[in-house]
Each structure stands twice: as structure tokens, then as C-alpha cells.
Amino acid sequence: MILKTLMRWGAVAAVLAFVIVAGKADPVGAQTFDPQLTITLADPTPEVPSVLTNDFDLAEGDLQFGGIVSFIPLDWGIVPGDKIPIGASMGNLFSDATLGLINSACNQVLPVNFDMMNASLDRGNTVSMDDTDDSLTEDFAEDNDGNGNLDFVDRYPDFIDRIVDVQPIRRAAGMTIVAGTPVLLQFLIFEPGTLIFENEVANDIISTDYELGYPTLTLLQAAGDPDIVPEPGIITDFCTPLLTENNTFGETADGDQVMVNPQNGTYTFTTIAVGQRDSDGDGYENTLDTCVLTPNIGNPRVTMDGDLDGDGLDAACDPNDDPAAQGTDSDEDADGYPNRQDNCPLHPNGEREDNQADEDEDQIGDACDPDPLVENGELTLVRLEKVITIGDGTGPGGPPSAEACPDCFVLGGENGSSSGDDDGGSNSGVIIGIIVAVIAAIAIIGGGSVMMMRRREGA
Ligand SMILES: [Ca+2]
Ligand SMILES: [Ca+2]
Ligand SMILES: [Ca+2]
Ligand SMILES: [Ca+2]
To answer: What separation in Å is there between the alpha carbon of 194 and the centre of ligand 2?
Structure first.
């Protein structure tokens, strides 16, 4: 355990070497969640490979996202993953993530980039996100069969089925090392109509799901896994600004088609993004706010702002915000979780207690939640639509022809429902879970910081 801890903290130095400190002041204000989406198609000619760039940005001061589901239009040409070689490069993602490290202000920008590969869809051949063989590397990040593909490419991460128990038609996966820890990013594409939003809030925004097209779910690490076990880590916050650029290739380096433009016409890409909860409405989401029930005095993005003793706890609820005690209260309740990561910074709820338990998943721990069974703070759903024109846009539209894309997914065709255990309409129960689980999950990144740090089995 000591060795593990040392290795982790050693890695911090490496991270800090790449960190740009952006200590810019941000006026305190009401909560906003205003994601900006841009979709660019390199070549709008009908029926040619689609080279798509999707920029998703959140400005500094916005609430961090809790979940994102994107839809690719129904008539777009999607080649299923089982028609593309495993391990083939299908795109990349560049992002600038803003992090708070080791209890400091959330203002350190870390570039995090991924190369995305076509990955196995075989849910019968799974791999763990834990280090089950005690090799000091998590199983998914190893190449146990020595075929040149890391195991998250060859095998299906087992936690996915615990989040969404539905067969995807394609999975793109990429890994990068952050703070010495392998981090996995995955995009799962499902058949149109698979995700049915029964969520009350979502229903206000989404009228029909099938017509929106192919739902794409983004999974970062094992966030959303109900079996995840929190543990203290070095990444204590994950906040805005956030910049992401996601590029999808039209074909692999060997010329295998990946995505193909539809016929002359116009098409709408839809993205549903959910902002995290902010229970006291002070503009700081629960995962970033050390005083979740009291409007903050300072800005958690600015070093020591409203935090005279620099312990990460805002003076609005710090019982001893005393400069004379600077640095000594970095874990005020002495439960092992630093203040900025602790979902109850003033109530012991560490690994010896309930270990950050949060029954209603509002990122306020049960130990200090005034309503442990009722979520505090609203989720903000935003629906973003971008219209893309193919050709001159005057045509009636329609999918690419079988000649232009022999392997493209055919709606209602024989390559539909590869699992045979779902047919869209019967999955409402599944999906209620999805948006909620993913929200809860990704939100954990900031507060519980489970994203980068997972307990190894038996550790
Ligand atoms: Ca607050
Ligand atoms: Ca303080
Ligand atoms: Ca605590
Ligand atoms: Ca709670």
C-alpha cells in the first residue's frame, strides 16, 4: 500500500511537468450549463467516406457535464464493428481537461489525447478493469495473448454490461496514461431506437428516440460501474473549461470503410448533454463545491480564493479557516479523503466508514446529505442540434447505396439486432438506468475522483 501510494505521488511530479496553471479569475454567478457543439464534415460529397470532426466545449465557469449521449443521423452510413479489422485505427480525440490535483484549485489544464481503435464486440470474452493477476498493470491495459493489441481491444471490458446491458454494433476504444494510470475511453454505437429515455427530465427534451438515429455513448474509464470502489486519489477535481475535439475517420489506414456519407440532403446530428447538480445554486457543481449547502465565498478555480488557510475548504463552511493553520487541515475530518475529493469533507466517511457512500447519487455523501434519498440540485439537460448538408442539400436524402457502402448497417435489415435479445421497444428499463448511471458515474470523477483511481482487487 505504501509502495502504491509512493508510486502515485511520484507520478504527480510527471503530471505537474505538463500542467499549465491558468489562475484566471472567474466572477461568481448563477449556475450555467451552455455546451458548444460544432460538427464539421471534411467532404460533403454524397456517398464518400465521412471524415467528421465533433468539437464539444464547455466554457470556464460552466457546470461540468454529467453525461453525454450523441446521435448519428438514421441515414448515415455506419459500418458495424464486426466488418472492420480489430485494432484498426478509427479516429482520435484531443482534449484539454481542467483538473484540481492534490486538493489544489481546479485550474490545471492537462492535454489528454486518445487514438481510437476498432474493438471487440464479443460480450462473452471479457476483461477486467482491475489488476486481477497482480502484475501491477490493470488487466485491460495488458497484452496477455501477445498479439499486439492491448486486451481492451481484443476483449470486452466486463463493466460495460453492468452499465448498459445491450449489444452495441460498434465499439471504438483508446487508452492513454494520465498520472501514471492507464485511462480508457470508449465510444459505443447502438442500433437506432435502442436507447429509450424514460427519464422524466429527458422526456421534456426528447420526443422520439428512433428518429434521432444511432445513439453513441461515451464511457470514460469505468465511470458508471455500480461495483466501483472509491479510493483516495491525486485528482481531486475535474471542472470546466473543457475542450474536446473528436475526429472520426471515414476509413481505416488499409482502406476499410468506417463511415460513409448518405445521399444528397440535409441531416441533423443531435447531442443530449446533462449538466451536474449544484445543490446551493452558487454556480459550483456538487463535485467541485466543498460547501455544497452554502454559497461559497471564493471561487474554487482560483488558488486560495475564499480559502485563507489554503486547505481547499471554502470559508463558507470551513470551521477553522485560519492562516496560522495553513496546510494542516487538508483532510479536515481525517477520513483519508482530501477535502476537495471528499463528498463530505467535514464528516468522516472514508474507507473505515461507509467509503463515500451516496445512495441518491447526487454527489453529496450519505454522511452529510440532508436528504440522502432525494437528489439535491437539478440536472440541466441541453439538446444540441447541428444540421449537415450533403451535396447541395436539395435531394430527398437517404442512406448510401449498397454499392457505395456494401458493409453499412441496414436499418431493419438482416444485420440488425446482432444480440437477438433486444429490439428497441423493449429496452425502456435499461435506458432509465443509462442516463442516470452515466451522470452519476462521470460526476464521480470530480467528487469521488474514482475515474483515475481504482482499488485493485485484494489491495
Ligand atoms: Ca457552495
Ligand atoms: Ca479553508
Ligand atoms: Ca468525509
Ligand atoms: Ca447523496
So the answer is: 47
Ligand nearest to the CA of 346: 3
Ligand 4 centre distance from Cα of residue 110 (Å): 29
| Ligand 1: centre distance to CA 269 (Å) | 36
Percent of the chain with pLDDT over 70: 79
Say if 341 falls within a structural domain: no
- CA-to-CA distance for 80 and 60, rounded, in angstroms? 37
On whether residue 31 sits in a domain, the answer given is yes
Cα(371) to centroid of ligand 4, in Å?
7
- For residue 317, how far is its CA from the centre of ligand 1 (angstroms)? 9
pLDDT of 276-334, one tens digit each? 899 999 999 999 999 999 999 999 999 999 999 999 999 999 999 988 876 678 999 99
| 359 in a structural domain | no
Q: Which domain holds residue 444?
A: 9-276+379-456
Task: Give tens-digit pLDDT for 195-205.
Answer: 544 455 555 55
Plot region of 442 (φ>0 → left; ψ -120 to 50 → alpha; else → beta): alpha
Total number of domains in the chain? 1
pTM of the model: 0.82
Residue 207, CB-side half-sphere exposure with 13 Å CA sphere: 1
Q: Which residues lie at CB < 5 A from ion ligand 3?
A: 333, 335, 342, 344, 349
Query: For residue 132, what is the DSSP state?
Result: T
